[in-house]
Amino acid sequence: MDFTEFSLNKNLLEGIEKAGYITCTPVQEHVIAGSLNGADLYVQSQTGTGKTAAYLVSIIQQLLERAESKNKKAIILVPTRELAVQVEQEAKILCHKTKLKVASFYGGVGYTRQIENLKKNIDIIVGTPGRIIDLVEQQHLIFDNITFLIVDEADRMFDMGFYPDLRKLIKFLPKSENRQTMLFSATLNNYVKNLAWEFTREPKEITIESENITVEEIDQLLLHVSSDAKMRLLLGVLKNEKPESVIIFCNTKKSCEIVSKRLQINGIENKYIIGDLPQNKRLEVLNNFKNGKLTCLVATDVAARGIDVNNLAMVINYDLPNEAENYVHRIGRTARAGKSGKAYTFCSEQDVYNLIPIERYIDMNIPSEVAFEDQMVEDASKNIYIKLESYDDDEEKVYKRHDKNKLKDTRSKNFNDKNRNYKKQDSRTDIQKTKPVEKFDESLIGLSFEERMKKYKEKYGQGSFVASKNDDTKKDYETSANQDVNISKTNAFRIKNNSKQNIGTKKQNTDFNQKNEPTKKGLNSLTILERIKLFFKK
Asked: What is the rounded CA–CA span in Å between residue 429 and residue 340?
């Protein structure tokens, strides 16, 4: 089925033509047909099947149809910065003949430009959960007009620990009945199912089945090699195969940087991307790789999903991935859109424990052989120490420091307000260590207000006590006295049951009322005994 067979806006069709789309993939056909009537969708489709274009075409079409209803917006949540940029770029191509505005929001860069973009009334917001939550909590981003919610690569969100952030973020949005929600996932798990059940309205499930969980066109080969010979084998594969483009995957940032620098020493031009690399540098590296200026890229799993590279010839797993699913996502970078590709995987004595779960997950034995010396090349970096770099984004660092100080001030203010309110509401039982504790007089139990006043007068008075003529004040005294009786009864009960405890009625003076209600002269904050002493002195 072609895109032209749908009743799409002519401006959108021009964008589809510019993007080079003609025939719909299965996921695109089902998603567009199912979503244009407003239904929520829960879509399972493996990577590289065109699901990004599927949901973009759907929401752009509906936003154009609702042009008369101003300020209708869509938000697309993705797990990585790279995928956010890719979705933004694809959306801009599709929207280039429309008036819809698109922007992406992610961490690793400063807030200034992103906040300025939000002031331009963005129609399609693409972002990672952490940065979107920051912008919402700082009140730069308002969700009142969100009509469409897309969660892309939902399973990856959970793998990266975004599940709590997702749930928190979705609760800021309009209710499910007031928006259309679409969830996309390469694999099914309980977290994705729970999210679909909790935040969608009877979603229509779309599952794009494949005979094999890996792409058939990928020529896979597993090479058994000792860990200290991996670099020589890598150099040999690159020399013998001479791939036009290759991504080399490592499990850790440290390994990624070391492999990249050792390749450089051996005369192989390459770049690496890791999470600590400043975002502008990461984007520059990826763009150079996509347009062919760079042919060799070393990466952690941050680039394993959501990165479309046309005509990628080869993937090399320098380290066998710790998660079985990541093997599929890594090798899925090649052989996209029906093209062929090759995937080499190195399996050392340190990696072999990950092999069984991977083969069980893909339901096949990966073709394998033992690597021999004639497949390897001497490593010029063998005895060279590799110094690792560290990266900081200065603007981000300054902002975080400023934000941290602001948060500290806010927490201090909240604590003081909370403490002040606590003292105001329960100053009678607040304990000050500087004041001696008065022992409870059990003879006060059951006495009326007047009888208690008389007893206090005998104990503390230097003359006759004259009660206030103000009925409101007297009522306030009576209320306080009755509260003291209740407290006294409780304390008496405790004393009776535990004679070792020295529990008194620990009444203190807080200065909250003195500062904020000077006309009452702090009387409400005084205990009944302290107030009587004060009146007798007067």
From this structure: 77
